[in-house]
Design goal:
Elements lengths: L2 E8 L2 H14 L4 E4 L2 H13 L8 E3 L10 E4 L10 E4 L13 E7 L2 H16 L4 E5 L4
Parallel strand pairs: 1-6, 1-7, 2-4, 2-5, 3-4, 5-6
Helix pairs in contact: 1-2
Keywords: Nucleotidyltransferase, Transferase
GO biological process, one term: positive regulation of DNA-templated DNA replication initiation
EC number: 2.7.7.7
Length: 139
């Protein structure tokens, strides 16, 4: 069963997600990042620039190199080659999240984002998924 971790109050949601993906990669795991196309375009740009010392190989789902790339970006339910970790940057519950061992929900401090995260929390809780909440004091 998928373990769900909420990371609440990210001052900059995409910057935090970059650091989270880097941490997952440093642990030797693969990750799929889910979000709307505009968010993923910005996230793609940030993965190239957020750190001068790190290179995080990534491609969009459907790319010819997806099966050999540890970080996949997708904006719809896709048959991705990885099932370790899913990072959700969307306001919706990814329909395919249960394929993954672990789901990370990154939530900003904006009230709309927090309200939508509470709905997703209830969704997972009501279906019996193991949940953990992490408050980000300063990221």
């Amino acid at each position: 069963m998928t373990r769900v971790d909420f990371h609440f109050n990210a001052a900059d949601k995409l910057q935090y997600a970059c650091r989270l993906v880097r941490k997952i990669r440093r642990a030797g795991q693969q990750v799929v990042v889910f979000g709307d196309p505009l968010t993923l375009a910005e996230f793609d740009r940030l993965l190239w620039t957020f750190s001068k010392l790190d290179f995080i190989p990534h491609v969009f789902a459907g790319d010819a190199l997806a099966d050999r790339t540890p970080v996949i970006l997708c904006s719809e339910s896709a048959d991705t080659p990885h099932s370790d970790n899913l990072v959700n940057l969307s306001h919706a519950t990814p329909s395919f999240f249960s394929r993954f061992e672990r789901l990370f929900e990154v939530v900003s401090s904006e009230e709309r984002d927090r309200a939508q995260a509470r709905e997703r929390w209830r969704f997972y809780r009501d279906r019996g998924y193991p949940l953990a909440g992490h408050q980000l004091a300063a990221d």
